[in-house]
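User: quick one, sequence for these tokens?
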């Protein structure tokens, strides 16, 4: 298990897009449940790895699954349907009844059985172009890590003006297939056209 705990950083990105002519809402239907409870048994030995990397999102109060590796999680996933597996991009909001990030992280390093309450974002893509206007979104992201969250959509920006399906609380999962936080921020700053993959939690 690895939790990358780095200070968050906020930045206003002025990438100046408007909606492209071929814009459309594109949900990714791989996992339909918005919320799911998943359980792992107690490890068979103290050195059995969890096999899952997570990043804390302190502003939102949950952990983001960023990588699945060899270990208890991968063993759990084998033979399970997709909607009963742990997956990259899942939001872990509670473990064994604990909802504070430091308590959840402590449990991940323990030798007890674990019950996870997971929220799964729906994904959609938005294609935008600069056209001389400002994006008008404020991003929050760790100094080192992979997640980028939108904390505010400014009233004076192009995202608001053109009605793009982007709102505060969305996670930017990728921009033009670039997925790490530094790559996403860099790409938004230089590209003329951006295909943003947006992850959003919708209440069930």
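Assistant:
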């Amino acid at each position: 298990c690895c939790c990358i705990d780095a200070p968050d950083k906020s930045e206003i990105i002025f990438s100046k897009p408007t909606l492209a002519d071929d814009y459309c809402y594109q949900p990714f239907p791989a996992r339909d449940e918005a919320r799911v409870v998943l359980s792992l048994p107690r490890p068979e030995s103290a050195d059995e790895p969890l096999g899952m990397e997570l990043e804390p999102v302190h502003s939102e109060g949950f952990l983001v699954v960023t990588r699945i590796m060899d270990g208890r999680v991968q063993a759990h996933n084998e033979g399970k349907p997709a909607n009963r597996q742990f997956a990259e991009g899942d939001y872990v909001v509670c473990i064994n009844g604990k909802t504070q990030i430091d308590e959840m992280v402590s449990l991940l390093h323990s030798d007890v059985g674990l019950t996870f309450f997971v929220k799964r974002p729906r994904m959609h893509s938005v294609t935008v172009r600069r056209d001389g206007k400002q994006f008008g979104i404020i991003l929050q992201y760790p100094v080192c890590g992979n997640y980028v969250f939108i904390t505010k959509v400014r009233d004076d920006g192009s995202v608001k003006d053109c009605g793009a399906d982007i709102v505060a609380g969305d996670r930017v999962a990728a921009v033009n297939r670039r997925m790490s936080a530094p790559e996403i921020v860099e790409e938004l700053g230089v590209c003329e056209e951006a295909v943003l993959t947006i992850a959003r939690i919708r209440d069930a």
